[in-house]
DNA sequence: CTGAATCCTAAAGGATACTG
DNA sequence: CAGTATCCTTTAGGATTCAG
């Protein structure tokens, strides 16, 4: 146990299998979060904090219930997102980032900044890149 | 001045369509680079510089020719990677990052650092997360 | 050797409708 | 409110084969 200037990371590292012969942090990180909606979902949870399903669906503008549900399940399995039932009577659920999920903020904000810097909305007439 | 080998962001922003009603930099950035192998390919091009096809295939350990070829084509369409034919006789091609591609390094290295910090290779006995 | 083209299967993702 | 359940289309990706 060396220095501990950083906030406590109580859980251990996530064990993630790698495609190639030698384990690679880029390959494996990519395998965790490089799905179409994952970065956006994580971003919205970072921005708005713990959210209910429909609240999240609102914020992740453009996603369908099915895909949001699937994505959250996947993120749950990967231990990046937690799901908590906060009420049974009016059934309510809350999604939040785990410590590992929170720690993705550097990546997510790097993506956001890059997008702001390098991308733009297509103008009316030009139908460009996907 | 004004010669070909000028980096320095001469090009404008890339026009990228967004799924939701309001354009979002995270959503759109995600749509560009969040494919299984894209971050790794970009990472290897950052690390090793312009590379030939098989050199790249070596470095992107675990990828098949077909998938590498498809991925490079996709990255080419998105103007993140350039393809240059450097020899016809022994047919040789060189792939390199465009200025926009290079500028992804913050994101890619953020992913690398995160992976090193939060992920680990599965131990022998435990078959864990994908 | 170089890389590209085929074939095929497995996922991912979207539209819609419907439950407790 | 918080999802499932279907259905369906598209895409990703792996194995293999082909061509220069």
UniProtKB/TrEMBL annotation, chains A, B:
Keywords: DNA-binding, Plasmid, Transcription, Transcription regulation. It comes from the Archaea. Pfam families: HxlR (PF01638). InterPro entries: HTH_HxlR (IPR002577), WH-like_DNA-bd_sf (IPR036388), WH_DNA-bd_sf (IPR036390). The keyword DNA-binding applies. Residues 24-123 form the HTH hxlR-type domain. This is Helix-turn-helix transcriptional regulator. It comes from Haloferax larsenii. The lineage of its organism: Archaea, Methanobacteriati, Methanobacteriota, Stenosarchaea group, Halobacteria.
């Amino acid at each position: 146990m060396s220095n501990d200037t950083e906030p406590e990371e109580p859980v251990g590292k996530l064990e993630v299998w790698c495609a190639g012969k030698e384990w690679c942090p880029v390959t494996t990180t990519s395998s965790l979060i490089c799905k179409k909606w994952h970065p956006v979902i994580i971003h919205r949870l970072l921005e708005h904090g713990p959210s209910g399903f429909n609240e999240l669906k609102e914020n992740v503008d453009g996603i369908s219930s099915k895909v949001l549900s699937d994505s959250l399940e996947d993120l749950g399995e990967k231990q990046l997102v937690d799901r908590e039932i906060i009420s049974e009577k009016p059934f309510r659920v809350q999604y939040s980032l785990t410590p590992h999920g929170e720690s993705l903020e550097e990546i997510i904000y790097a993506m956001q900044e890059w997008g702001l810097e390098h991308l733009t909305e297509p103008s009316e007439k030009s139908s460009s890149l996907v």
